[in-house]
Write a structure and sequence with these properties.
The complex is a heterodimer of chains A (812) and B (341).
Chain A lengths: L1 E3 H4 L10 H10 L3 E7 L7 E11 L7 E6 L4 E6 L9 E5 L14 E3 L2 E3 L2 E2 L16 E2 L9 H4 L5 E6 L10 H11 L22 E4 L4 E10 L8 H9 L7 H13 L4 E4 L7 E6 L5 E3 L5 E3 L5 E4 L4 E4 L3 E2 L12 E8 L1 H10 L5 H8 L6 H15 L4 E2 L3 E4 L7 E5 H8 L5 H8 L5 E5 L2 E5 L10 H12 L19 H18 L3 E2 L5 E2 L3 H4 L20 E2 L4 H13 L5 E12 L14 E12 L19 H14 L5 E4 L9 E11 L2 E9 L1 H6 L8 E6 H7 L15 E10 L4 H11 L4 E10 L8 E10 L8 H18 L3 E3 L1
Parallel strand pairs in A: 12-15, 27-30
Antiparallel strand pairs in A: 1-11, 2-11, 3-4, 3-6, 4-5, 6-9, 6-10, 7-8, 13-21, 13-22, 13-23, 14-21, 15-18, 16-17, 18-19, 19-20, 24-26, 25-26, 28-29, 30-31, 31-35, 32-33, 33-34, 34-35, 36-38, 36-39, 37-38
Chain B lengths: L1 H19 L4 H12 L4 H8 L5 H40 L18 H13 L5 E2 L5 E3 H4 L19 E3 L2 E3 L4 H10 L4 E10 L10 E12 L3 H16 L5 E8 L2 E10 L16 E10 L1 H6 L6 E9 H9 L12 H4 L4
Helix pairs in contact in B: 1-4, 2-4, 5-10
The chains are: A alpha+beta (812), B alpha+beta (341).
The structure holds zinc ion.
Amino acid sequence: MRISLNWLGTFLDIDKSKASFIADALTNRGIEVEAIEFQSKGLEKVVVGKIITKDKHPNADKLSVLSVDVGKETLQIVCGASNMKSGDKVAVSLVGAELPNGLVIKKTKIRNVESSGMCCSMSELGLSKEASGIIILPENAKVGTHAAEVLSLDDVFITVATPPNRGDVLGYIGIAREVASILEQKINYSVTNVKSTAKGAGGLEVEIKDDHCYRYIGRLIKGVKIKPSPDWMIRRLEAAGLRSINNIVDITNYVMLETGHPLHAFDLRQISGAKIIVRHAKDNEKIKLLDETEKKLRTSDMMITDPKKVLAIAGVMGGIESGISDDTTDIIIECACFDPSSIRLTSKFHNILTDSSYRFERGVDIDFMGQVMEKTTALYKELADPKEIYEPVDVITRKRSERVVELTAKAATDFIGVNITDLEIEKLLTPIGFHVSKTGSTLKITVPSFRNDVTMKADIYEEIARLNGYDKIPAELPAVVISAEFSDGTNDERLKNNIRNILKGFGYLETITYSFVPDNYHTLLGYSDDDVIKLKNPITETMKIMRTSLVTSMLESVKYNFNHRNMDLRFFEIGKTYLSRKNSGHIPSPTETIANEQEYICGICTGNVINAADWTRGTKPENCNFYTVKGEVATLLAGLRIPSFDFVDINPGKAKYLHPGASCAVKCCGKECGYIGKVHPDLAHKFDLGGSDLYIFELAFDHLKLVANAGLSGKELPKFPLIRRDLSFMVPIEVRDDKIRSNIKKAGAQSLKNYGVFDLYNGKGIPEGQKSMAYYFVFGSDERTLSDSEVDNSMLKIIDGLKKEFLINIRT
Amino acid sequence: MLDLNSKLSSLEGALKAELSSVKDLKSLDEFKIKALGKKSELYQLTRNIGELDPAQRKTAGALINKLKTYIEQNIAELEAGLKTDDNKNKLSSEVLDITMPGRVYPLGASHPVTQVLNELIEIFKPLGYSIANGPEIEHEYYNFDVLNIPREHPSRDMQDTFYIMDNVVLRTHTSPVQACTMLQHTPPVRILSPGRVYRSDYDVTHTPMFHQVEGLVVDRGIKFSHLKGTLLYFAKRMFGEKTSIRLRPSYFPFTEPSAELDVTCVACKGKGCRICKNTGWLEILGCGMVNPNVFKYCNYPDDVTGFAFGMGIERIAMLKYKIGDLRSFFEGDVRFLRQFQ
Ligand SMILES: [Zn+2]
């Protein structure tokens, strides 16, 4: 809400030069001031000028050439307006002025005639948005003085953002109340009852059939004269961003701004039997609103009606038919109180947000409505020349019960942490309308009718803390209480950081991608629609389903990077996948788990694994492949201290997103918990990554966290030297390393400590269908140095074993 | 004897002359053999001592030895000199261009959100906070009702909240974790709940998914001033010792009183700049004393009090690392990620 300090100054003493002090104080009280504007800003170089001569422009019919006396000099100004004559006083923007709308005045030539300045219209001075012609100032304006002074453009505006629970500060009176307590003043606001000129209600009847309407005051006023509002009212409405329409409508808006209570005016002619009925809408009832949109109503919408038809959506917007028109003479003024939630639901459903609904949603002061009506009537009497003012009809369905909160100063002190006394509480709360009385050490605090938000002790503590100032609260730390119970999440975070650090060492970048994916990704991975969790209201087509796997997220990121010419990639994500629990077709109760949320680590790499421009390695790129990723995963698992892990064949039907010949499953402590492999070309193709070799791994974090961080124990180092022997042989290409290793193990060679493959070759010189492999064997004893013959014997055993099982050809 | 004397002196002269022409270690080795080896004249003379008169043997031996020692000394001196020269030559032939780059390994990086989260955990750990996690697909009941967010509250709208079913949502904050923790544990409670949260918003300053960390402390005797102290501690550690804080009253349904926390602008240190809209302050988080209605939902006794605070991790990361566009956090562009090594 944009507040004019001139207007606010009618309720209390305001020194406009202290606007920023007031703004800061309001902000510190929870009414945030977003902007302060000085109306005279930009008008420093706008002065009163007198038109001495007015001539036609030689080269343009619609332009005039004026000579204007601005005091120190006489200027030649080209002007496009036509509403001025010589002798008129006008507002002249001198060369160098920078007007509120951003226009900078320069010496210029218009159609070959020099112009040194500009005669201003209202809108150019930041006043009315609808300007026709330039401003003609009063005759007594002194030439050369500031036009802003003559026009009283000395206002200061502050824009406040009110918290959603503070309906009471959505009007000038509410703001004035807060400012008065800041400045230690009392507000000066009184409403005197307007004498009705006619007895009775003039035939007006009001009936409330919807209990969401708590109170309704209607008043009939006859013989009003529709005319423009006075200037001061237009200015005040415009300061708040409201457009002036005519005196009848403007008065309702004006009183709303002043009191925070929305009002509405109906044309009596359109109301059958002069009877107002507040009721639910009927099914399929329709209304054409003031903004000329038509709305189909729901039965839960509260309506203002007459016995025959709907007139308005209660508290939201009036209908166009019953609105004020140029020939209206008799009006019904409505001042009502509606249930905030009901208004909110209707306003939201029909997507209509008005100044009225905004205020009703936040709650109005039901006890103040009589005065609001009197204030409104007084303005009609003053500005609309009514013939008859009838007595108001006031129907109340729900009375406000007085709210009293009891507390002690000690409790407030303990809660806030600032020492506060009974007297201080009274001094803080009384100026903003609370009543404080004392019995023993207990304070009885009566909440004013306009503070719908204050219902309990904590609310009063907030008032005390806020009015006393949050800056006065000391900063202290509570004593540390550590409970052994809560530790699970901390360990998880530590393990995740271990994973990140190890992967970081391999050059992996951590990424975070959206949890939702397009609605076909799960089918690419073999999931059915029943498996997934769908959003009812997705924000875009690409964010419709909760992801079932991180794999598609990784592929999407690869695609994004390829599109940005980043070709060598390795990145990973630690994040959740979401699967439906299938049985939950029904609405789950709060004790049920809704979805299977599982955490995974998923990494992908493609292209060169090392810095492509590294002279120490030569110019040959080293592309990642299945074995680089497998090795990284093995190193990762070892680094996480998983006591045992293995890489095995993928069970048929599983992990179909991987290349069947270049993929494996990962087993940790006997349980399968992940996959490694080349992305299946079919899937890569779906992401337009057809030609690229992509290697991916995924590991179930939920399993890793159960088996990781095995205990460590140091062992004695070998005392006697180890002996290494190598063996290379040719073997049919289909014989796998795991078969050879298990054969070696089976041979039971004595003192064999360690063994494994160290070379593979199947290029030139190796017969078709064969490959050359080289294994190393490390022998050692804890008791003595082994002799050559002992090692030879062991090697013979191994070779025998290999020969028995495979067609191998030992190479020497 | 005279004969031997003259022989030795002419030998000495010859050897000295030859030694003076030795310029490297290799010819010095050759000279050693020639002068002192088994075929050398000196050796021959030594062997011939036996043929002399016994009376003359001693003197002759001494004379020969003297020459031998003299030659050996000369050789040793020359050798030491030549070795030093040789080392120098060798070192100078091994000079590298140390301005060439070394072998650099491609180092990965944690996501900036992770880095800020880790920092937050490190900051709050010493104060006794544990980490509590919970589901992201959540009952409306825990996401709203328990937190005293009324049925018609704007945040429940389809425009703001993603719905899965009529009463199931993607959590809009990590507060349900706090509620569930309170429902499962009696006070005292002191937790930090980090994680992904979802809101239906998508532009430069909003993404439909982002990360939050919320803190909750519940015990007997917890005061508003404890909240302020905790936030001051946090702000100084996160943004530097010189950071000041400012609490402004605000409104959240689950806290009463509520406040917003401003910290000294990280860019201008409080002088006022474009980032802080010339206020010198930056809004960092929302907080407050837990609303008694929330305690009621969690069946907590009347005499406990507590405070809660919640912040967006991306917001902190944007301020700390000067990141302009929120969306860049989730695009996965490796050029963006690599900046956070
Ligand atoms: Zn700044």
